[in-house]
């Protein structure tokens, strides 16, 4: 049995940006609840605020108004420091551009989130998990390779292992197959599905893949600052 405690709750979340003195509302009082282990796919045209929404859920960014709660805790009300620690321990990110650290080996990249923990037990567990996850994504024999020696698909598999290394509640994937060919994209999607959803974690994915839409529990459409349909 996988534990289930990832719950995402957005209460009238608004995000406005000011550009050259003009205010633009990208997200307009978005209210949303995602249950334990739900897999939601987020759709919408380019520039509708999909990345903005993921960044608010992941605590990379903060809303102009409204509240974001993860597992019952308001990340909006946390200090920047507390939110950073919370994010490191509870949220895994997978980006379109992989975002691996070039100076670090495959293993070191995956160790990063747990190495920063102040809890020695978490650091030790992190080491075991990192190797195990890299085995699961099929890169157990590339631990000492550097990112520039890996193909795009391999880099994204490392990024998936890194996103899961702290055993987060929530995994956020922003167009994770956007830089990959169709075949490689399928492998990456299958791994994300297997390692997140089947482990009882919440997964929110921005994607244009019809296939993903077919297997998601929830399909969210972002349009004019609102979630519709
Ligand atoms: N830091 C920022 N400052 C000003 N405008 C921004 C900023 N980040 C995003 N935006 C604007 O917010 C809108 C939504 O962006 P984004 O969330 O990246 O859209 P999507 O991921 O759906 O393509 C865009 O119009 C973008 O230009
Ligand atoms: Mg985006």
Description of the structure:
There is one protein chain. The protein has 229 residues and is α/β, with parallel strands linked by helices. The chain has one domain (37-48, 79-228): P-loop containing nucleotide triphosphate hydrolases (Rossmann fold, 3-Layer(aba) Sandwich). It is built from seven helices and ten strands. A six-stranded mixed β-sheet has the order 6-7-8-3-9-10. Strands 2-1-4-5 form a four-stranded antiparallel β-sheet, covered by helices on one side. Helix 3 (106-115) packs parallel to helix 5, helix 4 (120-136) packs antiparallel against helix 5 and helix 5 (152-164) packs parallel to helix 6. The longest helix has 17 residues, at 120-136. The structure holds adenosine-5'-diphosphate and magnesium ion. The site of magnesium ion has 3 residues, from helix 1. Adenosine-5'-diphosphate (ADP) binds at residues 17, 19, 26, 44, 46-52.
Ions and ligands = adenosine-5'-diphosphate, magnesium ion
* Gyration radius over CA: 17 Å
User: What proportion strand?
Assistant: 25-35%
- Rounded average pLDDT: 92
Overall strand count: 10
The count of domains is 1
Topology as H/E string?
EEEHEEHEHHHEHEHEE
Number of helices: 7
- Biggest sheet statistics: 6 strands, mixed
Q: Could you give the distance between the termini?
A: 32 Å
Spell out the CATH superfamily.
P-loop containing nucleotide triphosphate hydrolases
State the CATH architecture. Answer: 3-Layer(aba) Sandwich
At CATH level 3, the topology is Rossmann fold
Determine the fraction of residues in helical runs and give it as a percent range.
Answer: 25-40%
Strand order within the widest sheet? 6-7-8-3-9-10
User: What is the CATH domain class?
Assistant: Alpha Beta
What characteristic shape results from the CA principal axes? globular
Low-confidence stretches: none
């Amino acid at each position: 049995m996988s534990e289930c405690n990832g719950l995402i709750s957005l209460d009238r979340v608004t995000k406005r940006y000011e550009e050259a003195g003009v205010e633009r509302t990208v997200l307009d009082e978005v209210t949303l609840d995602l249950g334990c282990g739900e897999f939601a796919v987020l759709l919408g045209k380019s520039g509708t605020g999909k990345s903005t929404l993921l960044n608010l859920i992941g605590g990379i960014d903060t809303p102009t108004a409204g509240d974001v709660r993860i597992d019952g805790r308001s990340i909006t009300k946390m200090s920047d420091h507390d939110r950073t620690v919370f994010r490191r321990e509870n949220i895994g990110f997978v980006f379109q551009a992989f975002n691996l650290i070039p100076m670090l080996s495959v293993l070191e990249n995956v160790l990063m989130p747990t190495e920063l923990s102040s809890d020695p037990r978490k650091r030790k567990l992190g080491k075991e998990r990192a190797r195990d996850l890299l085995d699961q994504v099929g890169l157990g024999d590339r631990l000492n390779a550097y990112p520039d020696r890996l193909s795009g698909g391999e880099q994204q598999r490392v990024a998936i292992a890194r996103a899961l290394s702290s055993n987060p509640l929530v995994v956020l994937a922003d167009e994770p197959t956007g830089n990959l060919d169709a075949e490689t994209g399928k492998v990456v999607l299958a791994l994300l599905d297997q390692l997140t959803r089947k482990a009882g974690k919440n997964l929110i994915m921005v994607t244009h893949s019809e296939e993903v839409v077919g297997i998601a529990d929830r399909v969210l459409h972002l349009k004019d600052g609102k979630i519709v349909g």
